[in-house]
Design a protein that fits this description.
- This protein is an alpha/beta fold.
- It has one domain: Acetylglutamate kinase-like (Carbamate kinase, 3-Layer(aba) Sandwich).
- It is built from nine helices and six strands, in the order E-H-H-E-H-H-E-H-E-H-H-E-H-H-E.
- The strands form two sheets. It has a four-stranded parallel beta sheet with strand order 2-1-5-6, with helices on both faces. It has a two-stranded parallel sheet with strand order 3-4.
- The longest helix has 22 residues.
- The radius of gyration is 15 Å and the shape is globular.
Length: 186
């Protein structure tokens, strides 16, 4: 039986606001990670929400907001790496590969990598969903799972830029913490 290809699991920020949902999500990711190679990409959650509020209140640029929101993803990556069994906090493809070789589930803090490549538009049309699609393509992933609080069609649950950033041939699925291990995912 062939080894499954790499799967990127993007953990939605709303999941990280709910301790019970986060616990379920991390347990499911841990189980899934025992059977296939994964990279976890966090959403920005409450930290990115604060960037939106601060931008409205203080009027800073979309460029500044873009980088601040990606830094918010780094903060959530710290949370996930702290709570996920067998996690390794990583910052770029080389660290992802090293974590995988060590038998860890890489949890990406994407700011340094995204800053270096600076390949995406700087607006709220690009959120962590699009960043996860970009990362999936860069890593040659076969599947991107968008782990969200609610299920539904991908197009209804992603940001406006997702359809232009999503690479052709990347299978994208939406799952909730309760449905992450459905057989159709693997």
């Amino acid at each position: 039986m062939a080894e499954p290809g790499l799967t990127v699991v993007k953990v939605g920020g709303a999941i990280c606001r709910d301790p019970a949902a986060l616990r379920l999500a991390l347990e499911a990711i841990g189980r899934l990670g025992r059977h296939q190679p994964l990279v976890v990409v966090p959403g920005g959650g409450a930290f990115a929400d604060q960037v939106r509020l601060a931008q409205r209140a203080l009027g800073f640029s979309d460029d500044a907001a873009h980088w601040m929101a990606i830094l918010a993803m780094d903060q959530v990556a710290q949370l996930i790496a702290d709570r996920l069994a067998r996690a390794g906090l990583v910052h770029d493809p080389a660290e992802i590969a090293a974590a995988q070789r060590a038998g860890l589930i890489p949890v990406l803090a994407p700011h340094a990598w995204m800053r270096r490549v600076d390949a995406l538009p700087h607006s709220w049309d690009v959120t962590s969903d699009s960043i996860a699609a970009f990362i999936a393509e860069a890593l040659g992933a076969k599947v991107l799972i968008l782990l969200k609080r609610v299920d539904g069609p991908v197009e209804a649950l992603v940001d406006r830029a997702f359809s232009t950033i999503r690479p052709a041939g990347l299978a994208v699925r939406v799952a909730t913490p309760a449905t992450l291990e459905l057989p159709a995912i693997g």
